[in-house]
Write a structure and sequence with these properties.
Its EC number is 1.1.1.22. It catalyses: UDP-alpha-D-glucose + 2 NAD(+) + H2O = UDP-alpha-D-glucuronate + 2 NADH + 3 H(+). The protein is of the alpha/beta class. The chain has two domains: about 1-195, NAD(P)-binding Rossmann-like Domain (Rossmann fold, 3-Layer(aba) Sandwich), CATH 3.40.50.720; about 210-430, Rossmann fold (3-Layer(aba) Sandwich). It has helices at about 10-20, 35-40, 50-60, 95-105, 125-135, 155-160, 170-180, 180-185, 195-225, 230-240, 260-270, 280-305, 330-340, 355-360, 370-375, 385-390, 395-400, 415-420, and strands at about 1-5, 25-30, 65, 80, 115-120, 140-145, 165, 190-195, 310-315, 345-350, 365, 380, 405-410, 425. The chain has an eight-stranded mixed sheet with strand order 3-2-1-4-5-6-7-8, sandwiched between helices. α1 (about 10-20) packs across α3 (about 50-60). It starts with a strand and ends with a strand. About 50% of the residues are buried. Bound molecules: uridine-5'-diphosphate-xylopyranose. Uridine-5'-diphosphate-xylopyranose binds near residues 254 and 258. Uridine-5'-diphosphate-xylopyranose binds near residues 147, 249, 258 and 259.
Length: about 425
């Protein structure tokens, strides 16, 4: 199939490369010339395991190209909208400027038999509005949300755990079935539904995941005042298959480009629809999540006897999760900034996130060499559970630091091993 992907950010670049890898003929379009130049040269503009490999093979096959010229979409019959929907500056609502601009830019090139497929995460009601914009051209519109996780984006795109088609025109189903023939043949479940349900599936899934994380973090708060251990609690309730252990990792909380923004945009949209009370709990989910960041800062102050001022703190991790270079709404970066704000000498180390973090917070000290951050540190704070950090030998770390104190902001270290190496250990919801 000939297809275009409008927007070559995280979602679009991976989608374009994966579709070409699956045998489709794909053109990726973006207004950012630097990004297009990188992608055309086979270089991923962000860190994503597996992406450079499929970019290289898809470009070499001749089935994939990137351009800033919208006219290049003329030959394609399926057009994916994969532009960003960031949080607006002055409210929690999603900013649809890029989605609207992408659809407008497509209009001259689409007609009867073409299908525009929205993949961006949008407030419920957007697809119906855009379908009316597209209709005069004779083309149809479908909403096909994307559930990819950073760090597993290639795998999640090639082998999705479900496909959701939000459609109004029944012929869209056959087109999408052809797009996703490989995943369907491998048994991926397919849900064909209306626009509103498809849009809501995405935000509901992210709201549920965020709620699950904040639930266990709320339990961590209770564990902290009772002496209970939240990781054992999570293990015990997680054995109940109705609950499940995944996403019960208590720690410094969720961040990234999706979960925080999506629950806020969902709240804003529900309020617009007069149903704010239905998702009012999401404000609490957000508040619990943000409190955990302050909790790490408070633990640091306690660990250093009441003040971090002038003390060297090694912050292990700056990305919102491991296997990513993304620092958007990163709890780890937020903790580092809070500690710096309290007067600490903060040295941040991370395998992939330093360049992005430095752009946002140049006031912090960064090093890609963990030993440099650890050397003569008064306190070690782990906030992103990169394997490089969780596998550190506490005895070797003990030789580097000035004082053996560690805060485990992800409950990812073995408390016994660190205590045996002479460290005072504090986790989140366990000690
Ligand atoms: C998420 C959804 O998982 C994905 O389906 C959607 O398409 C986009 O948003 P992503 O943002 O890549 O994906 O990250 P995810 O792996 O879901 O983690 C989100 C955040 O939650 C991270 O900051 C992570 O550290 C945190 N988290 C996750 C926890 O704090 N505890 C957990 O148990 C799990």
């Amino acid at each position: 199939m000939r297809m275009s992907v409008i927007g070559c950010g995280y979602l679009g670049a991976v989608h374009a490369a994966a579709m070409a890898e699956l045998g489709h003929d794909v053109v990726g379009v973006d207004v950012d010339e630097a990004k297009i130049a990188l992608l055309s040269a086979g270089k991923a503009p962000f860190f994503e395991p597996g992406l450079p490999e499929i970019l290289a093979s898809a470009l070499a096959s001749g089935r994939l190209r990137f351009t800033t010229d919208m006219a290049a979409v003329d030959d394609a019959s399926v057009h994916f909208i994969a532009v960003g929907t960031p949080q607006t500056k002055d409210s929690y609502a999603a900013d649809l400027t890029y989605v609207d601009a992408a659809v407008d830019a497509l209009l001259p090139y689409i007609g009867e038999g073409d299908l525009v497929v929205g993949k961006s995460t949008v407030p419920v009601g957007t697809a119906a509005r855009l379908a009316a914009v597209v209709a005069p051209t004779g083309a149809s519109l479908a909403w096909n949300p994307e559930f990819l996780r950073e760090g597993y984006a290639v795998q999640d795109t090639i082998s999705p755990d479900r496909l959701v088609y939000g459609i109004a025109d029944p012929s869209s189903v056959d087109v999408l079935d052809e797009v996703y023939a490989t995943a369907l043949a491998a048994g991926a479940p397919r849900i064909v539904t209306d626009f509103a349900t498809a849009e809501l599936v995405k935000v509901a899934a992210n709201a549920f995941l965020a709620t699950k994380i904040s639930f266990i973090n709320a339990m961590a708060e209770i564990a902290e005042v009772t002496g209970a251990d939240v990781t054992q609690l999570a293990d015990a309730i997680g054995h109940d298959t109705r609950i499940g252990r995944r996403f019960l990792g208590a720690g410094v909380g969720f961040g990234g480009g999706c979960l925080p923004k999506d629950i806020r945009a969902f709240t804003a949209r529900a309020e617009e629809l007069g149903r704010g009370e239905s998702v009012a709990f999401l404000k609490e989910v957000d508040a619990i999540n943000l409190r955990r960041r302050q909790r790490v800062a408070d633990l640091a102050v306690d660990a250093l006897g009441g003040s971090v001022n002038g003390r060297k703190i090694a912050v292990l991790g700056v990305t919102f999760k491991p296997h990513s270079d993304d620092v958007r709404d990163s709890p780890a970066l937020d903790v580092a900034v809070r500690l710096k704000g309290l007067g600490a000498e903060v040295v941040v180390t991370d395998p992939e996130g330093i360049d992005n973090a430095r752009l946002r917070h140049p006031q912090l000290i960064y090093t890609s060499v963990a030993e440099e951050a650890l050397r003569a540190a008064d306190l070690v704070v782990l906030v992103t559970e990169w394997p490089q950090f969780t596998s550190l030998d506490p005895r070797e770390v003990g030789e580097l630091v000035r004082h053996r104190r560690v805060i485990d902001g992800r409950n990812a270290l073995d408390p016994t091993a660190w205590k045996d190496a002479g460290f005072t250990y504090a986790g989140l919801g366990r000690s």
